[in-house]
Amino acid sequence: MQCNAAIGSLRIDADFATTHPWTVLFGPSGSGKSSLLRLVAGLWQPQESRVLLDANDITATPAYKRKIALVAQQPALFPHRTVRQNIAFGNDNGSAESIAQTLALFALNPLADAKPATLSGGERQRVAIARALASTPRLLLLDEVFTGMHRTQRDTLMQQVRTLCAARNIAVLAVTHDLPEALEADEVLRIDYGRIVAQGPPSIVLSEEKAAMLANLNQH
Description:
Elements lengths: L1 E6 L2 E6 L6 E5 L6 H9 L7 E2 L1 E2 L2 E2 L10 E4 L11 H8 L5 H10 L15 H14 L4 E5 L7 H18 L2 E6 L2 H5 L3 E6 L2 E6 L1 H4 L1 H13 L1
Parallel strand pairs: 3-9, 3-10, 7-8, 8-9
Antiparallel strand pairs: 1-2, 1-4, 5-6, 10-11
């Protein structure tokens, strides 16, 4: 992916490729992480940009044709539809069996007939991710979807997503500024002021942050 464009006062000058199943885009707020996800998804198309998926140039491809699913921090569910209906909307084949499998995988069967307004924030996020994966995308974009979750809840949901993505050969590009979450990735892209300043294994790219976190834990 290549991008050289301004968004507000920030200039994004990034050129990178991902080859791992779970890649994290890590950096402080305002560094351009979400803008890059929107670029990959096709929701932002600056003139000086280029996006490739599986070596195919999709820069001019409309968002709805890209086979890329984006889940934001605030899940955009249909308020008038039940959990089952929300997931069915994203389901490629629409079969009852496939929808039932998705509900079961994300432990959503008890909530299948509930409306989004009655769900907790974590439950709504589970439904949003389940709906995105029901469309069987080639690439899943996660924009700080685990932010604010309890550690146990976050770890469980992340493992559910990893399991399903691995089974369906779906790559993940996830945005976060949460260090423990980033350390669990296969690869990390560090972004700062719109530029990719490092790329590689979390243990190397985030070695200083990890050492500082461990030192802080040892002090307590």
